[in-house]
Amino acid sequence: MATCPWCGTDYTSFQSNCDKCGGSLPLPADMVPTPSAESLAAPPLPPRNVPCQVMWHILSTDGWPIAALVFSPWGFVFGVVGTALTISIVAAFVGLPFAELGGLVLSAGVALLAWRYQMAHRTVEVLEHGEATLGENVSVRQNYQVRVNGRYPWTLQHRYQVLGREYAGRVTTASRPHLSEQPGPPVYVLHTRVILVGARSIPVHTVTMGCDQGTS
Fold it and tell me: Is 20 within a domain?
């Protein structure tokens, strides 16, 4: 028996999310792993060796660059056809809207692809040079509104402390989270920091160990 802590709905068997409110359900007692911070393997010290294919794996499981690659060629085709019709003058009244629409779609696709590439590059940088600190996962949810390569991605929200201050982040992964990544057990969080005025530093990008990709 599993009970949703958010709305009180009861389930006879365990599932990751409540069908009624969408909240994450806690693991049954017999499924909860019991790792401790002492037994948890710490990540290697930076700089870490991250395979180059990790970048492309992140992009291939991200719906935004996939959408950009689908729509950008159509924008290019519309732009070329519209420009050709506009130059012919006879069909300029048709070609001009085509050219403008194609230019907008192509520009949006390129900008979207560049943005997600930058985010993937930041994730790889965190894996290579990020500082490790202990944290914990607070929720695990599967996003049924997005489907990438036939799979619904998972979002793991976590919290951790840096210099006595608590922060929160989230990681999106296409792989089903392991039992050790359910809410409760400790996890290592890799993060980068930016130094602000007054020598105050805040984490700006995080990745939890064991997940495919992540953004704070």
Answer: yes
The letter for the amino acid at 69 is: L
Asked whether residue 87 is assigned to any structural domain, the reply reads yes
Residue ranges of alpha helices (H) inside the chain are: 53-60, 63-87, 92-129
Element (H, E) at 206: strand 200-208
In a domain, 43, yes or no: no
pLDDT (tens digit per residue) in 45-81: 888 888 888 888 888 877 788 888 889 999 999 888 8
Residue 63 structural domain: 53-125
Distance CA 73, CA 58 (A): 22
Answering whether pTM is above 0.90, one says no
Are residues 101 and 70 part of one domain?
A: yes
Q: How many CB atoms sit inside 10 A of residue 186's CB?
A: 17
What's the angle, vertex CA 23, arms to CA 22 and CA 28, rounded to 5? 125
Both 57 and 113 in a single domain?
yes
Number of domains in the chain: 2
Q: b vs e for 84-123, b when ≥16 Cβ sit within 10 Å of the residue's Cβ? A: ebbeeeeeeeebeebbeebbebbeebeebbeebbebbebb
Q: Which residue has the tokens 């809207």?
A: 97
For the chain, give the mean pLDDT: 76
And the tokens for 27? Answer: 């693991």
Give the mean pLDDT of 20-48. Answer: 67
Alpha-carbon radius of gyration of the chain: 22
